[in-house]
Amino acid sequence: MGYAQLVIGPAGSGKSTYCSSLFRHCEAVGRSIHVVNLDPAAEQFDYPVAVDIRELICLDDVMEELGLGPNGALMYCMEYPFALSNSESTSMDFSATASCAIFRIGPNGWKWLYAITMLELEDNMDDWLTDELDNYLDDDYLVFDCPGQIELFSHVPVLRNFVEHLKSKNFNVCVVYLLDSQFITDVTKFISGCMASLSAMIQLELPHVNILSKMDLVTNKRDIEDFLNPQGQVLLSELNQRMAPQFLKLNKALIDLVDQYSMVSFVPLDLRKESSIRYILSQIDNCIQYGEDADVKVKDFDPEDIDD
Ligand SMILES: Nc1nc2c(ncn2[C@@H]2O[C@H](COP(=O)(O)OP(=O)(O)OP(=O)(O)O)[C@@H](O)[C@H]2O)c(=O)[nH]1
Ligand SMILES: [Mg+2]
Questions:
Q1: Which Gene3D superfamilies match (predicted)?
Q2: What tens digit of pLDDT does each residue of 17-65 get?
Q3: Which pTM does this prediction carry?
Q4: Is residue 305 included in any domain, yes or no?
Q5: Residues within 5 A (CB) of ion ligand 2
Q6: CB-count burial class (<10 Å; 0-12, 13-18, 19+) for 108
């Protein structure tokens, strides 16, 4: 059995920083983890990269292969799904659908490049991942540092397929969703962060831990309590105050949805405190049952059992 954290969240929410802090913490306590970079655009790391998706493909390569600058790439990208939809192959049909879905987000060339990169990952995932994972042993613990494009876990199936692959390799996987604590300065931002998390829960169907990151930036700690474990009614009244009256019904529906999934619960992460990282790691370990096998092994050798 292997163990894995899939670290996701909006761009800049602190995923890579969390991965490096987690690595340092584990190193200090003598525990082995391996951090995998899944961000094709990443440039530098504060952690040793165990596996790097950039060996498969990186954004520079995509731009170079296309022979285009950002504007030209955008034009190419706008034509890309239509070129794909003329194809008869099933996987290409999927690609066209995914690309069209991404296209609707807006004419952003970088997002397109991500889309192509991720589709490339999907096409090659089985071979690449199988080769890479073969290097890891049964009890290894992997942490996947993902890109910040939220469409990857909201409606494009690439991460879901990735997770299925990990599961087929006997990995227990937990989603670790990071939301920047600065989102709480505005209840509408906070709700949109919750919705993105909910999308990931529904898309990925995995044990899920929500983290409110960058707690060192929160000056008024009392404010935060309302957001770590907020009551639906409190959020609703704040939303209603913030939004125009025509949104009352929508606000109610959104809060009901959040309540129904009982997912509005965040664990605060303050990287200045070792205890904060330790607590979060213990919560995640619990979700993926890490350490339970070890307990069983110890119990197997319980001297009292031998006496019996
Ligand atoms: N004050 C503070 N800043 C942080 C913390 N974590 C991350 N940052 C800063 O937030 C910015 C983004 O951090 P990253 O770790 O690169 O965020 P990311 O989610 O990996 O970003 P993408 O991969 O681009 O989506 C950087 O400037 C970090 O230094 C934190 O706990 N406290
Ligand atoms: Mg990052």
A1: P-loop containing nucleotide triphosphate hydrolases
A2: 999 999 999 999 999 999 998 877 778 889 999 988 767 655 555 556 6
A3: 0.80
A4: no
A5: 15-16
A6: middle
